[in-house]
Design goal:
2% strand; rod-shaped
């Protein structure tokens, strides 16, 4: 026969827990012996372990009481239901662990893996990290708003990077971030970029230069992100406008913007 302390030790709970289960009517409270102590048999150990296991599984004590009185079939069905719930909780916790782990993963927290690979490719090609940051800021709302179009946009971006002149513009823009708004090199860059865009539009078509399907509010958001991340971009847009181009995310000939529809 066991004392309450020994019972608690065998079942892996505290004496206070045993008394709590007595008070809740879950575990029968034995009579005291001639010395005034309550003594518990092996059956009490088994019952207490059942109570502890069900309680640790999140089963309310009122439900524990019902299950302890249930027949074998009902108890087995309840255990199966508890198991399903625990499996679902485990899957949810595992996903939470994966999300927590991604908090240290930088770009991959908010961007698809293929976009992260594209940003890494820009770095490999020597593009200034600040320009990469502008690209990243633009991709985040794009990927959230139109995830199904990300592969299409990425394919076009990769193809454009194969153009040595466009890649040179990427690198020059990085250096331009350190230029003053009145630096004559910005004017020269605007001249070169306007000429390049005109040639590209003539050779590949307007759709190749800008995604005309992009909703204006989204384009405006991306412009704002770019201007905040790279203030010289606003001055460059002013210079390009004087050369017949408007927009940043949606670069278009001014004549297109003015046309009906």
């Amino acid at each position: 026969m066991l004392t309450i302390g020994e019972l608690a030790s065998y079942a892996g709970v505290t004496v206070r827990a045993v008394r709590h289960y007595h008070a809740k009517g879950l575990l029968p409270e034995p009579d005291r012996d001639h010395s005034g102590y309550r003594r518990y048999d092996a059956a009490a150990v088994v019952e207490l372990i059942r109570i502890r296991t069900l309680a640790e599984a999140g089963v309310p004590l009122a439900r524990v009481r019902e299950l302890l009185r249930a027949d074998e079939a009902e108890f087995a069905a309840a255990v199966a239901d508890i198991d399903r719930r625990l499996r679902a909780e485990i899957r949810a916790r595992q996903e939470t662990r994966r999300r927590i782990a991604r908090l240290t993963a930088g770009d991959s927290l908010a961007l698809p893996a293929e976009v992260v690979a594209f940003l890494d490719r820009l770095r490999e090609l020597g593009v200034d990290e600040r320009i990469v940051a502008v690209e990243r800021e633009g991709w985040i709302p794009l990927a959230a708003h139109s995830p199904d179009r990300v592969p299409e946009w990425l394919a076009r971006k990769r193809a454009q990077l194969a153009d040595a002149q466009l890649l040179d513009f990427y690198r020059t823009l990085g250096r331009a971030l350190d230029w003053a708004p009145d630096d004559p090199r910005l004017t020269a860059l605007a001249d070169d970029l306007a000429a390049y865009l005109a040639r590209l539009t003539a050779e590949r078509g307007r759709d190749y230069v800008a995604d005309v399907d992009l909703a204006p509010p989204l384009a405006e958001l991306m412009d704002t992100l770019a201007f905040e991340a790279a203030p010289p971009a606003r001055r460059l847009i002013e210079l390009l406008r004087k050369r017949g181009w408007t927009g940043w995310t949606r670069l278009e000939p001014l004549e297109t913007r003015r046309s009906p529809g």
